[in-house]
Design goal:
The protein is of the alpha/beta class. The protein is built from 20 helices and 27 strands. It is globular. The chain starts with a helix and ends with a helix.
Length: 563
């Protein structure tokens, strides 16, 4: 563990303290003005000090909430740390939020200041509510303060480092509004203590157990406004010694894998689905010997994972296929990948098995915004893909009487902002009630479903939709799916087909039904003409389908399927 991490009591002290260890070491990589650029630790610390001085000059005081709306870029991390360094509270929100979304957050948090990246976002915030301070990073329009002006005073970075050493770990650091899959977002109060607990537990695994070299690279593309990437990319990876490279977007990932050859990537299940679709489509298009070798490598790889054991001739064949097939797949990810970590939602074991069988080190973790957010994680050499791993060091986990997973430790939130009823429901006697139904075996956590998402059929049977939806999305003919059945005689499904495979959806559903119990089987389905996306409001920015919104929008269709 880095010396700064061991001694830090606040998040700004953690990152600014890196300067004391090695100021010239690259910390951030980013695209600017047509080229990739790097920012050293010392330059980052100076930029944070300049921004902190500017915020103070503009009247930002301890306890103030400051909304932060920007893409993944150095200025996001600089602003985030500067806000916390002056004792204020960061409220990170998505660039995809509507005016109504921002209005709710401004009203609920009481924020009177905001920092945004673009003029379009500045206009959206202006429409959302009254602000005393609005800072714009790019091309600041009238009525906003240019980022360059906010950071224009050269401040004393050493003095700020000494000052942030006095910030107590129990002070509120950030207010993260959960996007969730339905309902009104609630502000999760995360003190410095919660994120630091995550950093201490995970950085040991990242920095030592994964044996990352000095020049290790972490490719960041999930939005930093989400608690997952905010903690992992914003604090855990830098504190573990990795250089954080900000991706230009999911559509450029394949190119960036080759350019930056990352050691670690974090992702959500939807990205794994997209990557599998691309890989299999390319193999099918190639056909011939290449397709035959690929399928054999996949089959033998799955045998190594699940048994039965390979015979000696099969082991020789598998070794040859490792060179002929798997090395090429690994090269697509840059050839240096130590871990491809999935979080944010349950990863279907069949999906992770696809990548593991092809030599890609996929490991699944688990967490919640209310817990910093990382609770547990698998390790490459201790990986049960059907579980979400073992609880982190310092995390207590147990099951409630109804099977709900309960968590306790320094990582747990202080509660929900201005919502004592919700806080009382979620936090009882120090235990966070996660809302997830789980099993625990041999120290591992196995998530089975969301407690609140169980469907009660007309006959009284309880069905877990997540299992059905994962199996449906695991079929190559199906891109996305939502299962429904509350109050109905049987289960139905809304399905988005894979491109060009609409006619094959029926047979895919028959295969899935063969894996389900009679009560779980899909009786009828409908094929939707357009996918669930962030733009149409049916997917969160971290690519989770909003089940409730999908069912509300297509309620008439569900009723027709049930009739």
């Amino acid at each position: 563990m880095a010396r700064g991490l061991a001694n830090a009591t606040s998040l700004p002290r953690l990152l600014l303290g890196l300067t004391l260890e090695d100021p010239g070491r690259p910390m951030l990589g980013y695209w600017r003005d047509g080229a990739w650029r790097r920012m050293a630790r010392g330059d980052f610390a100076q930029a944070v000090a300049d921004a902190a001085a500017g915020l103070r000059a503009q009247g930002v005081t301890p306890g103030d909430r400051v909304v932060l709306v920007a893409e993944n870029r150095p200025e996001f991390m600089i602003a985030d740390n500067a806000v916390m360094a002056v004792g204020a509270v960061t409220v990170p929100t998505y660039v995809t939020n509507t005016v109504a979304d921002h209005a709710h957050i401004l009203r609920d948090s009481g924020a009177r200041a905001a920092i945004v990246s673009t003029p379009a976002l500045a206009a959206r915030l202006r429409q959302a509510g009254e602000l005393d301070l609005l800072v714009c990073m790019d091309d600041a329009p009238a009525g906003t303060l240019p980022w360059a002006e906010l950071t224009g005073t050269h401040a004393d970075a050493a003095a700020l480092i000494a000052e942030v050493e006095q910030i107590p770990e129990g002070r509120l650091a950030c207010l993260v509004y959960t996007s969730g899959t339905g309902g009104t977002p609630r502000g999760v109060m995360l003190p410095h203590r919660a994120l630091l607990a995550n950093c201490r537990a995970v950085s040991v695994l990242v920095g030592k157990l994964l044996r990352m070299p000095r020049e290790a690279t972490y490719l960041s593309f999930l939005p930093m406004s989400h608690s997952y990437e905010h903690t992992v990319g914003g604090f855990i990876m830098p504190s573990a010694g990795a250089e954080v490279v900000f991706s230009r977007g999911a559509d450029r990932l394949a190119q960036e894998f080759a350019q930056h050859r990352p050691h670690i990537i974090t992702a959500v299940p939807r990205l794994f689905e997209v990557l599998r679709e691309r890989i299999t489509a390319q193999v099918e298009k190639a056909g011939g010997l290449r397709a035959t070798l690929f399928r054999r490598a996949l089959a033998l790889g799955l045998r190594r994972l699940d048994g039965p054991k390979l015979g000696w001739l099969e082991r020789l064949e598998d070794a040859a296929l490792d060179r002929l097939v798997r090395n090429k797949v690994r090269d697509r990810f840059g050839g240096r990948l130590e871990a491809l970590v999935s979080g944010g939602a349950r990863l279907d074991p069949a999906l992770s098995g696809f990548f593991l069988a092809l030599g890609i080190p996929v490991i699944q973790g688990y967490g919640q915004t209310e817990a910093g957010p990382v609770i547990s994680v698998n390790l490459p050499w201790d990986n049960d893909r059907r579980s979400v791993g073992r609880p982190l060091h310092g995390v207590e986990a147990r099951l409630g009487e109804d099977g709900e997973l309960l968590v306790r430790g320094a990582l747990v939130m202080d509660g929900y902002w201005n919502n004592p009823a919700a806080t009382e429901s979620a936090l009882r006697e120090g235990w966070l009630h996660t809302g997830d139904v789980a099993e625990m075996r041999d120290g591992r956590i196995y998530i089975t479903d969301r407690k609140r998402d169980f469907i009660k059929l007309k006959g009284g049977d309880m069905v877990a939709p997540a299992k059905i939806e994962a199996l449906l999305a695991g079929e190559p003919e199906i891109a996305q799916a939502v299962a429904a059945g509350e109050g109905l005689a049987g289960m139905v499904a809304l399905v988005v087909p894979a491109e060009g495979r609409e006619a094959e959806v029926e047979q895919a559903i028959r295969r899935v039904n063969g894996k389900l119990s009679p009560v779980e089987r899909i009786r009828r389905h409908a094929v939707l003409p357009e996918p669930f996306t962030v733009e149409n409001g049916l997917m969160t920015p971290t690519m989770k389908v909003k089940r409730r919104q999908v069912l509300e929008r297509h309620g008439g269709l569900v009723e027709s399927l049930a009739s």
